[in-house]
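Input record (one chain):
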Amino acid sequence: MATTSEAPTGKSYKFIVFQIASSIAHVTLNHPQYNLLTVPMMSELAEAIESLNGRGDIKCILLDSSQKVFSLGISREDSKPDRVFQTLDAFNRVFQAIAEISKPLIIVVNGQAVGAGSELVAFGDLIIATPNARFSQPEVKLGVFPPFASIMLPALIGSKKAYELILTGQALTAEEARDLGFVNRVVPETELENAVREILARIVEFSGPVLEMTKKVIQSTLGLPLTQAIKKSQDIYLNQLMALEDSKEGVRAVLENRKPVWKNK
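The corresponding structure, as predicted from the sequence alone:
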């Protein structure tokens, strides 16, 4: 699904492809042949996502791979003890960029996602996979543990299954990942492009700021006690959502029995 392009700033990237069209920021992992997550590659990925801050014209981010795998994780060089601090810092920057951008992140997986590659998938909001996809955290075999998956997987798939996957290094098939809620959809490879196009078309129909605010509520209330979560959601609804022009337009459109015309602000 990747095409060669340059970033909107005119800066070209070495390990990713970054392009913007039709309200979609498309980021493709492009580090032949295994998309190993080196520090330079992760820096490029974080920088591309960070550049979308304040872009009201961007409604969602699509992340995929140009290789036969999604990513086989951190490179051997960047896994060495003398480089691990830089590596974790670079990966944390990617995570922070995704969390702070608040734009829906759709990830397409059509191959193996291993170690940090699988952790990267866990950051996605909607995951579309083919039967070729595999997800694994084999770090225990190397004498380490996956720092991000150890936190995220229990919340995503439950603690018992998270223990099993992390302590055994066992891989999940695409279908198993879907059944556990780690993946949203599994579609045949021949239908992948249409499935991605369909879900993107649905998302870009809506107001960009409303999409961001919706993701913000979900992110910021996960794990909170119910009363605190409700309070936070209501605060964002009343004090931020209701201040948007698009929220007022949505109500007007319903009353006037017409399709809303979003201003994306």
